[in-house]
Amino acid sequence: MTRALQTISIGLLVTSLYLALYLQLIPLPELVQTEIVPLLPFWALVSFGAFLLFRLGWNVMTFNDVPEAHKELMGEIDLAKADLRRLGVDVD
């Protein structure tokens, strides 16, 4: 099973479950049905955004912990500076 097919399958499963809850096909207490179920998509979107923001911050914070990538990036920066200096651009 490819990653795309797996993602689509999980998305369809979650959507079907939410639709069953929203259309009251799965019985829930009235308070849950009227106060919580309509807000689930918004809560999921905010939670997903918070997760992605945390993951981005973590990867930025631990970037120097990947010495090969750091060395490669610094080499590319030095190469670009040398190329710009050869073309007569002041890069410092």
General description of the model:
The N and C termini lie far apart (51 Å). Helices cover 75% and strands 0% of the residues. The chain contains four helices and no strands. The radius of gyration is 24 Å and the shape is elongated. With 92 residues, the chain is an all-alpha fold.
- Extract low-pLDDT stretches: none
Overall pLDDT, averaged? Answer: 92
What is the radius of gyration? Answer: 24 Å
What would you call the structural class?
A: mainly alpha
Strand content: under 5%
Number of strands: 0
Search tags:
92 residues; mainly alpha; 75% helix
Topology, please?
Blueprint: H1 3-22, H2 30-36, H3 40-61, H4 67-86
Short description:
By secondary structure, the protein is an all-alpha fold. The chain is built from 4 helices and no strands.
